[in-house]
Every structure is written in structure tokens, then in C-alpha cells.
Design goal:
50% helix, 6 strands, alpha+beta, globular, 288 residues, 15% strand, 4-stranded antiparallel beta sheet, 10 helices, two-stranded antiparallel ribbon, 3 domains, single chain
Length: 288
């Protein structure tokens, strides 16, 4: 109720300035687009886990919904919604949304983290919380790294050597300088990563993509007191949620695959997708 009231107040003037004819929306309706209502529930869903009472963030979320509805309306005017590609994209979007809802249902049952678990985490993974680091990293982002090239790179210790291997194998990459907060990383990897400072490069594969980098500088920004315990609890809950989603959805996919029949031409082309990957929001590209 508190959330609803704050949004209604915060958006009252914003919506009034959006233009259009007739009376301004009231109550649970925050805007209308050509007679189609956008409700507080729509706005909350748009903001998702980023839901906040900040008027600017709420206004941006509302603008995204309005823009999407206006563009969709124009697409319908041009009969784009009746094309074969539209049917494919609609199915993809629906299936992705349902997979995400299934994953969310699984995470609703994640057991809470105990005080003993928090204490053990703080002792075992200081780099993530009590000795948190902000790192400046010189890195190569590789959108498609072949396994053989990855294996070669794991045997070298400098960026120059890694770059030579990428070039020799004609692998496309992009060099960037980025900032990494160790609290956002897998705790085990964060410990490993900080251990490479002033020494070796690190390699962080993620499916077909990979990041290869070297720590340029490091600054200690510890989290202490109650904030440290809260951070540890959040990390542990995130790990536990991912594990439960992977295990639960993995079983569903594994059992379901027994009934799947695949054209022989496509057999064994790639490893089965990970459950977590299957629940990500899809952004299908248009047919080439």
C-alpha cells in the first residue's frame, strides 16, 4: 500500500504532462495510451527487482512502457503483427516469460541463511565483503573463444602473450578498461582474481564468450558491521537461489529431453543449454 501511494503521488504531475485528450488517469491507472491503460501493477512489473520510490526511476519505467506501446501500435498499423516472424517472436517471448516465472517460483522456496552460515562466509571469503576490493582491469572481451584457443591462453601469464595467441588464431576481441567490484563476483573467483594482482593474467570464460584481463590497480573498500552481514546474506541467498534453479529446472529439462526427437542433421551440434541460461530474458534478433 505504501508503494502504491508513493507511486501515485510521484507520477501524478508526470502523467498530467504526458499530453493527450480527456481527463488525466486516477487511482490505479498511471497513464493511458490511445485508451489502453497502464496500471500501477504494470509499472511495478516493468521495474522488477529495481522497484523503488524514486520519482525519476518510476518516470523512466513509465516512459519505457509508453514508448513500447506506441511503437507496437504503429507496427500493428503496418500489419507487422501478422507476419510469420512476428508469430515466432511472440512464441519466444511467451516461453521465456513462463520459464522466468517458473524460476521465480523455485526461488520463492529458498531457505533462509543462518547466522552460522553468515559467520562462516565472512571468515572464508573476506575479499567479497570485509576486504572488498574495487579493481581497475585491463582486459580483452572475446565474443567467441574456441576451446583450443582458451586452453592455449590459460598457459600464458601476460596480456601480450594472450593477444599474440588471439591474433595468431584470428580470434576477434575488443580491448577495454573496466572497473570490477569484488562483492559482485562469485566469492571463490573473487579470491582467485585478487590473487593475480601484480602477477598473472586471469581468464574468465562464460559459455562461448570470455574475458581475459590483468588487474591494473586495486583499492580496498571494506564493508563492515551490520552492512557486512547483510551483504554476506545477500550473496549466500543469491548462490542458493541459482543452485536451486539449476537443480530444479535441470531435472525438468533432463526428464523432458527423453521425449525430444531431433533431426539427425542437428544432433550433437552443441551441448544442452544450462537451465539458468534458458530462463534469461530473450532478445531474439530478426531473421538475417
Amino acid at each position: 500500500m505504501k508503494y502504491t501511494s508513493s507511486i501515485a503521488i510521484a507520477l501524478a504531475l508526470f502523467v498530467a504532462g504526458c499530453g493527450g485528450k480527456g481527463d488525466a488517469p486516477t487511482g490505479q491507472v498511471v497513464a493511458t495510451v490511445d485508451g489502453q491503460e497502464i496500471t500501477l501493477a504494470d509499472l511495478k512489473a516493468e521495474m522488477g527487482s529495481d522497484a523503488t520510490n524514486d520519482p525519476a526511476a518510476q518516470g523512466q519505467a513509465l516512459e519505457r512502457i509508453i514508448a513500447r506501446k506506441l511503437l507496437a501500435a504503429e507496427a500493428r498499423k503496418q500489419d507487422l503483427d501478422s507476419t510469420p516472424l512476428a508469430a515466432i517472436l511472440k512464441t519466444q517471448a511467451e516461453e521465456t516469460a513462463l520459464a522466468q516465472m517458473l524460476a521465480r517460483k523455485v526461488t520463492d522456496g529458498v531457505p533462509k541463511v543462518s547466522e552460522d552460515e553468515i559467520n562462516e562466509f565472512l571468515r572464508s571469503f573476506p575479499t567479497s565483503v570485509t576486504d572488498r576490493r574495487l579493481l581497475a582491469v585491463d582486459q580483452f572481451f572475446v565474443p567467441n573463444l574456441p576451446p583450443k584457443v582458451l586452453e592455449e591462453i590459460t598457459k600464458v601469464k601476460t596480456m601480450e602473450a594472450a593477444e599474440a595467441i588471439l591474433n595468431a588464431n584470428k580470434v576477434v576481441f575488443r580491448r577495454t578498461v573496466s572497473n570490477i567490484d569484488t562483492v559482485s563476483l562469485d566469492p571463490g573467483f573473487a579470491q582467485q582474481l585478487v590473487g593475480t594482482e601484480g602477477n598473472d593474467i586471469f581468464v574468465m570464460p562464460n559459455g562461448q564468450t570470455a574475458e581475459i584481463g590483468r588487474i591494473v590497480s586495486s583499492r580496498s573498500e571494506p564493508i563492515t558491521g551490520d552492512a557486512a552481514r547483510q551483504a554476506a546474506q545477500t550473496i549466500l541467498m543469491r548462490q542458493r537461489s541459482v543452485e536451486m534453479v539449476n537443480n530444479s529446472l535441470g531435472r525438468i529439462i533432463s526428464e523432458g529431453r527423453r521425449k525430444v526427437q531431433v533431426n539427425p542433421q542437428f544432433q550433437g551440434k552443441a551441448a544442452p543449454v544450462a537451465p539458468a541460461e534458458a530462463t534469461k530474458q530473450a532478445a531474439p534478433a530478426a531473421a538475417q
